[in-house]
Design brief:
The protein is α+β, with helices and mostly antiparallel strands and 155 residues long. The chain has one domain. The protein contains 7 helices and 4 strands. The chain has helices at 12-26, 30-38, 45-50, 59-62, 74-80, 111-116, 122-128, and strands at 8-11, 66-71, 91-102, 141-149. Strands 1-2-3-4 form a 4-stranded mixed β-sheet. The chain is elongated and about 50 Å long.
Length: 155
């Protein structure tokens, strides 16, 4: 869940370096990490200018000083959104990250998540529960990675 008990909270400027460490640990190559991180320019300075328009719901994320994020366990993701592939690959790796903006005025509600952001990113490997064979290039492998913005103003 995207809450103080499960998520990490980072300053907007810290999100890209943090995700790079997580995704490198997971096994994504540099190009794949860059695609995931830059998708929609969500955490870059350019994004501020792109979303500085009225009625753009993403502008509310930019207005937040912090970002809360959590990676969903693969088993839960598989149950909620089954993926059928033919022929069946040897290994399917699915990474889903949920995130939302957190205003500075609400950071006190996220004390545990702020502390958790300082822990090793290895914790996400255990939480996502990825197949250890995911980097075995002799196998037929499929990778899917997504991020979903949780647009709630409730923090």
């Amino acid at each position: 869940e995207l809450d103080d008990l499960h998520a990490v909270v980072l300053s907007r400027e810290s999100v890209a370096p943090y995700l790079n460490r997580v995704l490198r640990t997971v096994g994504l190559e540099a190009e794949e990490r860059a695609c995931f991180i830059s998708y929609g320019h969500l955490f870059s300075q350019e994004f501020v200018h792109l979303t500085d328009r009225p009625k753009n719901n993403l502008s509310s994320l930019v207005a937040k000083s912090y970002v809360a994020l959590v990676f969903v366990p693969q088993a839960l993701y598989d149950r909620q959104a089954p993926l059928k592939i033919q022929p069946t690959p040897d290994v399917v790796t699915r990474i889903l990250m949920l995130y939302k903006g957190v205003p500075a005025t609400h950071i006190g509600r996220w004390r545990n998540a702020v502390k958790r952001a300082e822990e090793s990113v290895q914790r996400w490997i255990d939480i996502i529960d990825l197949d250890v064979r995911r980097n075995d290039e002799t196998l037929c492998r499929v990778w899917q990675w997504e991020s979903l913005w949780y647009p709630s103003d409730e923090c």
